[in-house]
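DATA SHEET
Item: assembly model
Revision: 1
Owner: S.N.
Input lines:
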Amino acid sequence: NAGVTQTPKFQVLKTGQSMTLQCAQDMNHEYMSWYRQDPGMGLRLIHYSVGAGITDQGEVPNGYNVSRSTTEDFPLRLLSAAPSQTSVYFCASRGAGRETQYFGPGTRLLVL
Amino acid sequence: GNSVTQMEGPVTLSEEAFLTINCTYTATGYPSLFWYVQYPGEGLQLLLKATKADDKGSNKGFEATYRKETTSFHLEKGSVQVSDSAVYFCALSGMDSSYKLIFGSGTRLLVRP
């Protein structure tokens, strides 16, 4: 049982490049989400999904796309990277109800 | 909307000192409240939680009590260790959006030997 896994751990992009951050969970959780962590601002919700085929926007969705084709996977796509997207990205998952969210180890992204 | 406010850090303590990290919240109804901890270079781990008023969450010597009357969920530990050095986040999930966690800005704790 690996929990929530994220790849890559670290990535450097140039402005305008695109990439996909991968997230997978093996706990059969319905709910998955993406957060970004910036100094002094805590974590902010980017997008979330309440089940396969269902996604919605969080607090800071601009510049990011998501899809949820399976229960296990929830990739985050940066369409055209900008320096403002330099951050640490965390994926999380949770079962039904108001249970604990489990976080992945994070992806550190630097956009030059 | 829902929000969480934490005390500014960093908090620097000597080993075996008493710790309090303040957290207050704004939310409608009865949110669930959480403390997460982030050790250097790692992701967030749930430290403790409380889901209704007057509940006390506890784990690893840390405690926090859900105070509806003061809308607070302060984190306490009687005797901190060097290994407790980390960033601590207070968070809530509201009744109107139970899937979403709202985080405070985090408080960095540094414990010196």
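QC remark: Chain A has a mean pLDDT of 93.
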